[in-house]
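The authors assume throughout that readers already know how a fold can be written as discrete tokens. The format is easy to grasp once an entry is in front of the reader. For illustration, here is how one protein appears when written out as sequence plus structure tokens:
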Amino acid sequence: MNNPKIQCVCGFGCGSSLMLRMAIDDILKKHDLEADTFCGDVGTCLSNQCDVIFISRELSELIVERAEVPVVVIDNFMDSAEVEEKVLAYMNPAA
């Protein structure tokens, strides 16, 4: 099975999405999990091929109704426990 493609989204695709991507990469490494992560912006994220979108609550309201993949809402990108919990829930849904 191929690694899931995780898109980290913020307003412009280069600020908070990069911080979120680095946090997710650290979590994946810590738990010996593999995924391909990349950053996207809210304006074009729905046209990017991915398996899941991680995004802030505020921006999720702009895409959630139109997304064809799961949208994981992060309330606080700086809350490492929240990010870890949601990444692990996505990566290990049966756990």
In short: The domain at 5-91 is CATH 3.40.50.2300 (Rossmann fold). The first helix runs from residue 16 to 30. The radius of gyration is 12 Å.
